[in-house]
């Protein structure tokens, strides 16, 4: 008997889909992700505070915390977001054009044929 079949029999769900099991696995995965993110942030903070040699990472961390630079950083963040959205829209438009007519953007779009006699 296969593993899948045994699990279905144990759950009392003959050939069906168990939503409870899916929700449990999803919750555990989300919790694991949150813990990993928290640990990563703690390690980065420890490196930033423990490394007082004034390296590039230290200066970037300090610069992000200064209130007078927040306005500039927010505007740069907004600019990068707008640029990303524009590039994504251009990419979608170009992909639609290529799907509709693949030869439209080709460099050899010459429809005249040469007759060799």
Description:
It contains 4 helices and no strands. The chain has 117 residues and is mainly α. The model has no long low-confidence stretch (mean pLDDT 76). It folds into 2 domains: 1-52; 66-103. The radius of gyration is 28 Å and the shape is flat. The termini are far apart.
Write the layout of secondary structure elements.
Elements: H1 3-11, H2 19-50, H3 56-65, H4 67-100
Strand residue percentage = under 5%
Tell me, what's the shape? flat
Q: How would a crystallographer describe the biggest sheet? A: none
Structural class: mainly alpha
Low-confidence stretches: none
Average of pLDDT: 76
The SSE order reads: HHHH
Number of domains: 2
**Alpha plus pi helix count:** 4
Q: If you compute it from the alpha carbons, what radius of gyration comes out, rounded to the nearest whole angstrom?
A: 28 Å
How far apart lie the N and C ends? Answer: 74 Å
Query: What is the number of strand segments?
Result: 0
The portion of residues assigned to helices is over 70%
Task: Give the gist of this structure.
By secondary structure, the protein is an all-alpha fold. Helix content is 73%, strand content 0%. The longest helix is centred in the C-terminal third of the chain and has 34 residues.
């Amino acid at each position: 008997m296969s593993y899948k079949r045994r699990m279905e029999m144990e759950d009392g769900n003959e050939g069906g889909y168990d939503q409870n099991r899916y929700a449990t696995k999803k919750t555990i995965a989300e919790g694991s992700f949150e813990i990993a993110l928290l640990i990563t942030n703690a390690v980065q903070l420890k490196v930033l505070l423990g490394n007082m040699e004034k390296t590039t990472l230290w200066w970037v961390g300090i610069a992000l915390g200064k209130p007078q630079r927040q306005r500039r950083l927010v505007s740069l963040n907004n600019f990068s977001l707008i640029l990303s959205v524009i590039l994504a829209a251009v990419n979608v438009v170009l992909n639609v054009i290529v799907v509709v007519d693949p030869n439209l953007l080709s460099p050899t779009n010459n429809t005249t044929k040469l007759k060799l006699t």
